[in-house]
């Protein structure tokens, strides 16, 4: 029973902090938000400070006024691990950090990737093929994009976007390179999870 009461108090406190934080982020005074939510400024002040219980009708009005959903306003704080740990693939010479936890809009994943494997001078490089499209920008170093028979050099500050149905791979040129990439589900599976 005490655990449930503590969890409820934590959520209540979090909701109050979210209301105040969203209001301040928009640069609104108590009066501004109170007007938008059809509440008095004193009622809103007491809600934010915890001196008044929040009614469902008030929460709904505040969520609408703040441009968020009721679900987002009251969702339980997630205390899962917030550290983004690297996925290392020694065979491919990559270390990848998934920037978004779980698929983002339209199922895409944003990842930062450090590439240490260099372009092979002898023999063919192993290339991937999968449905979809990849996009990346080079943050540091130089990347050689192997795209079919082509070798395209992409410098820091440049970006590339291509169909992943074309055999492709990333290699570093003259030292490690770091890219920020947007991958669809098939791209994430191919570039991040295979071989791990």
Outline:
elongated
**Total helical elements:** 6
CATH superfamily of the largest domain, by name, is Jelly Rolls
Q: What is the straight-line distance between the termini?
A: 43 Å
Poorly predicted spans: 1-7
In the CATH scheme, the class of the largest domain would be: Mainly Beta
Largest sheet: 7 strands, antiparallel
CATH topology title of the largest domain: Jelly Rolls
CATH 2nd-level architecture of the largest domain: Sandwich
What percent of the residues sit in helical stretches (DSSP H or I)? 25-40%
* β-sheet strand percentage: 25-35%
Order of helices and strands: HHHHHEEEEEEEH
From the alpha carbons, calculate the radius of gyration and give it in angstroms: 24 Å
Summed up, the domain count is: 2
Number of strands: 7
Mean pLDDT: 83
Structural class by SSE content: alpha+beta
